[in-house]
Amino acid sequence: MNALGAAALGAALLTSIYALVAAVVGARSGDRRWVDSSRRAFYALMALLVLAVISLEAAFLRSDFSVRLVADHSSTTTPTLYKVTAMWGSQAGSLLLWAFVLSIAGSAALFATRHSHREVAPWATAVMAAIATFFVGMMMAGIVFPDAETYPFATFAAGMVPVEGAGLTPLLRHPAMAIHPPMLYSGYVFFTIPFAFAIGALITRRLDASWIRSTRRFALIAWVFLSIGLALGAFWSYAELGWGGYWAWDPVENAALMPWLVGTAFIHSIMVQERRGMLKMWNVSLIVATFALSLLGTFLVRSGVLQSIHAFGESKVGLPLLVLIATVLIGSTLLIISRADSLRSERRIDSLLSREAMFLLNNLLFVGLAVIVFWGTFFPLISEAFTGQESSLAAPWYNRYTTPVGIGLLLLAGVGPLVAWRRVSVSALRRMFALPLAAALAAGVLIVAIGGGGSEPLALALFVAGAFTLAAVGQELWRGTLARRALTGEGFPSSLGGLMSRNRRRYGGYIVHIGIALLLIGIAASSSFQTSRDVRLLPGESATVGDYTVTYVEPTSQAVGSEQKLVFGAVLDVRRDGEQVAVMRPSREYFSSRTADPTAPLRGFFEGEATSEVGRSGGVTRDLWTAMQPDLTSFEPIIEEGDEKFERFAAGIDFDDPAQVQLLANLQGEAILGLGQRYLDETPPADIRFNVNPFVIWVWIGGIVGTLGALFALWPGAESRRRRVGDVYATRLARELRRT
Amino acid sequence: MANASACDNPARMNPAKKRQIRLVVALSTAVLLAVALIYTSFSAANDAIEPSQLIENPNGTYDVTGKVAMDSVERSELLRFEITNRDGSDGVPVEYEGQIPDPFREGREVIITGALDDSGTLIAEKDSLVTKCPSKFKEEYGDDPNIEYEE
Q1: Which of A267, A625, A640, B12 has its C-alpha lying 20 to 30 A from A454's C-alpha?
Q2: What is the pTM (predicted TM-score) of this model?
Q3: How close, in Å, is residue B29 to chain A by CA atoms?
């Protein structure tokens, strides 16, 4: 099975090289046979990579430790779901995932455009094949350079096969984390499609909006994937990490946020080109930037460059990725400059009060935000290069810039839909803005009246902007529905449904705006008005956090042999005004892992491979969140004593005798159970973090609403059906004309 | 078309000049933002230093890298310990509140962010304590005597 995957990957390299050559020959000569052949080669590439992925997944599911990747990232005790997802926990596996998703997305794009874009599509095929060649080539290069760990099918020599694998890092054993990486990667990869077609359009100078029309759906799919990936990452951080937040401006988070920001700008600005023939150069530049940032996202996570410039030298995939990014940037820039004459706008902006001007402003803010995040992310490198001292920027620095820009964008999410294309008259302006402005004012007054926001002017500004945008979008939906009802005489719900499904792209976008408004309101409320306290409690003791009284009722302990896991927990009784509001059970899970010192089977549990199981009790207005960590200082002497005993015992054991090895394992199990019992009998104090996070649920609701809105916009609606019928006629007509 | 829309525009100013002004405004905004970013990031960033350097430069917030001194850890609501250079010299007392990473032990290398107060104690920022991994037991299957192999 492994040989099959290895053979498929080798064939994939040849196939992608062939697709590249055939596409270039076809594009230059105009010979359709070469073009068709390159497209089919790309389909074949997909089939081969599917085969490679299946064969690798089979190795994971069968726990075939003769495959290095399986031994390094999975184990027989790993739950089945995480065996499947362990593939992308590794470097080689994530490269395979990249190429795999690219082959699927590219095949879909080539299939969709097989009858159109006769000039652009061959070059787009060439670009996609080149990128696929790069990723598959990097994997195959791992055969020659085994240290690089890029070849997914590397095996151990006979006799060197371990009986058990290292397992998946416990922190990543969370459902959100299982699907988070493929979501992000799919997001990155789907941006390849509009990028490839943009390059094709540049080379052939077909720079009208047709490349946008046929690939904007892929950009939107990429956006949905990236959004889901970001949201899952945030949720994982909130539910699994013991610090209580969902966003930390961590470089790895930023790496995914940057392509999202520029990609969002792109999705907006292409509407201006489709509608008004403007911003052509801006749009090709944005998609180049988005794609380069997607590659950068992969690079940042995989190269370790942000730990230090020096760590970069140790990574074997960093340099090739950097060369690819540089090639993409330099090549695209030269191409854009050489096509500058074809990229002139067909029109100019008539008025600063027009939809296109709002789109432009929105774009500047999104790109500005990306620049801020980029600077902050790379600041450790910049400062190390300039001052010789590595220094880093913390969340307050980011917040200082991102909050005002975020407020501006939120306002624009409401203003944009209200403003017409070309120009708005003052009277129309007054009519459109009256209600949203009144809503914003009312919200501001209300929030100040109930005593919120006075101390947090930025949060207050964000709430006001949120109210404005929600009212503005609501008003648009309301007016549209009324107009349609007057026209068709239908009831209100079916008028609303009819209105929205007639222009899915527009109204899907409005739903996304609603989602973003909810999300930002949730972020502002939960970060500005959080109550957080760290307390140290023994069983029976209580502490007051805000309006709540938290009592440590009793300790809990559990040992799970199959997962090599020891759980210490606490039962907390939470009361408000004497009335019980929740019973929470936070715990700390300690995992034995092979990355710890193998000569210390007990200490190995407490050396950092621990995860927090957070206690949560959610509501519409507030989340109670708690994490605990027992202070195990008092356990240290007995853990050390136990490990010494083990060492002495293990020294006299014959490892060839399975019975004696089993005995050793049993002893370890008993010692662990003993520790669990001791935790219940002589419970050490626990450090408990108790947070009251207002409105945090709206962050998730906003994320879900936004995603649904984008899916609504993506769903093939009446317009695209009409267009498809038109395409078929056009193709048929072209065929007839050729015949005559 | 371009002409028609320009005629609609009741522009009192020459359009080319207007564009120039817009360009200048946009460019200066971008330059201002860039300067602000550069200035604030260099002033807001914390340099990474060792305790001995901290003693020499007692003002300002730093990311201090050092070792946790033996027999110095005291846990209550606050975590108190002493951080020293890697060779054990130049101890600085630390007061910290927040999450304590599991591998935190005496003798381990840690990074913590904070500023010295008047008494010479490093008052650390909440949740800023990071413990470096004690050592990396990277699985070298061929060399490790503790791993069994299939025949």
Answers
A1: A625
A2: 0.89
A3: 11
Phi, psi values for residue A139, rounded to 5°? -65, -45
Contacts of A394 in chain B (CB under 8 A): 44, 46, 113
- Asked if A732 has any chain B CB less than 8 Å from its own CB, the reply is no
Decide if B48 and A390 are in contact by the 8 Å CB cutoff.
yes
CB contact A594 to B (< 8 Å): yes
Return the bridge partners of B131, or none: B110
- Give the helix/strand (H/E) hosting B96: strand B92-96
A393 to chain B, any CB pair closer than 8 A? The answer is: yes
HSE toward the beta carbon, residue A148, CA cutoff 13 A: 20
B36-73 as b/e: b if 16+ CB within 10 A = ebeeebeebbbbbbbbebbeeeeeebbbbbbbbbeeeb
Q: Do B8 and A350 touch (CB under 8 A)?
A: yes
Residue A578: other Cβ atoms inside 10 A: 6
**Is the separation of the CB atoms in A563 and A591 below 8 Å?**
yes
How far is residue A673's CA from residue A668's CA, in Å, rounded to a whole number?
A: 9
ipTM of the complex: 0.72
Quote the CA–CA distance of A527 and A402 in Å, as a whole number.
14
A162 closest CB neighbour out of B26, B76, B141: B141
For range A89-110, the mean pLDDT:
93
- The pLDDT tens digits of the residues spanning A673-700 come to 888 999 999 999 999 999 999 999 999 9
Record: contact A347-B137, CB cut-off 8 A: no
pLDDT at residue A710 in the model: 95
CB pairs under 8 A between A and B: 123
Chain B positions touching A356 (Cβ under 8 A) are none
CB contact under 8 A, B33 and A71: no
- CB distance A655–B97 less than 8 Å? no
Q: How confident is the model at residue B146 (pLDDT cuts 50, 70, 90)?
A: very low
* DSSP label at residue A563: G
Q: What is the pLDDT of residue B11?
A: 47
Tell me if A467 sits within 8 A of A475, measured CB to CB.
Answer: no
The closest alpha carbon to A469, from A430, A510, A499, belongs to A510
Report the first-to-last Cα separation within chain B, whole angstroms: 81
> B32 Cβ partners below 8 Å, 6+ apart?
none
pLDDT in tens, A349-387: 888 889 999 999 999 999 999 999 999 998 888 888 887
Out of B42, B76, B149, name the one closest to residue A161 (CB).
B149
The answer, yes or no, to whether residue A608 has pLDDT greater than 70, is no
Q: What is the pLDDT of residues B26-82, one digit of tens each?
A: 889 889 888 888 888 888 777 778 888 888 888 888 888 889 998 888 888 889 999
Q: Do A372 and B100 touch (CB under 8 A)?
A: no
Residue A593 one-letter amino acid: S
pLDDT tens string A455-475 = 788 999 999 999 999 999 999
Identify the pLDDT of residue A506.
Answer: 92
Please tell me what DSSP assigns to residue A350: -
Helix (H, G, I), strand (E, B) or coil at A235: helix
The predicted structure's pLDDT at residue A599: 66
pLDDT tens by residue, A561-583: 777 788 999 999 999 999 999 99
621-640 of A, contacting B, C-beta below 8 A: 629, 631, 633
Three-state DSSP class for residue A397: helix
| Window 208-247 of A, Cβ < 8 Å to B | 242-243
